[in-house]
């Protein structure tokens, strides 16, 4: 029997808040904590920046969204297509398209829409499913120390 990959609880929460709750502020909170714990990995920072880009656009800050999507793509482009149980190539392509639309916002306004992170690992999908069944409470610090 092969061992199931274990995903950090903060990473699972990030995917949950991104795909299920669409709470990009909470995405930022949990991913920033993971990013700091894991030595500031560029992959985590790029994922965080996609979420914050969406947060800014939803709140009408187009220039902030452009800045965050640009920074995210610098960190995420050129990585493996599938990483950490997700289809990163699809997220990068969707983010590039979103950025192009944001850059043309004055000529061609568009309404905010959510992006999805396609989960490709059944273990990650199952872990997110467990959060759907038992949603985490935002802003409640879990003590691990």
Topology:
Elements lengths: L8 H13 L2 H14 L4 H17 L3 H15 L5 E2 L2 E2 H16 L18 H12 L12
Antiparallel strand pairs: 1-2
Structure description:
This protein is mostly helical. Helices cover 60% and strands 3% of the residues. The protein has 6 helices and 2 strands; from the N terminus they run ααααββαα. The protein has helices at 9-21, 24-37, 42-58, 62-76, 88-103, 122-133, and strands at 82-83, 86-87. A two-stranded antiparallel ribbon has the order 1-2. Strand 1 and strand 2 (86-87) form a beta hairpin. Helix 1 (9-21) packs antiparallel against helix 2 (24-37) and helix 4 (62-76) runs antiparallel to helix 5. The model has no long low-confidence stretch (mean pLDDT 92).
Quick overview:
The chain is globular, with a radius of gyration of 15 Å. The protein has helices at 9-21, 24-37, 42-58, 62-76, 88-103, 122-133, and strands at 82-83, 86-87.
């Amino acid at each position: 029997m092969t061992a199931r990959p274990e995903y950090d609880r903060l990473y699972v929460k990030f995917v949950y808040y991104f795909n299920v709750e669409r709470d990009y502020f909470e995405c930022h909170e949990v991913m920033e904590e993971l990013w700091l714990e894991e030595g500031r990995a560029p992959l985590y920072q790029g994922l965080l920046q996609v979420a914050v880009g969406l947060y800014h656009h939803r709140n009408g800050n187009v220039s902030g969204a452009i800045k965050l999507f640009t920074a995210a793509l610098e960190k995420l482009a050129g990585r493996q297509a599938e990483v950490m149980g997700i289809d990163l190539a699809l997220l990068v392509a969707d983010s590039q398209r979103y950025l192009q639309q944001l850059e043309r916002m004055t000529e061609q306004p568009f309404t905010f829409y959510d992006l999805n992170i396609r989960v490709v690992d059944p273990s990650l999908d199952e872990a997110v499913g467990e959060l759907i069944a038992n949603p985490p409470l935002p802003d409640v610090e879990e003590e691990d120390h």
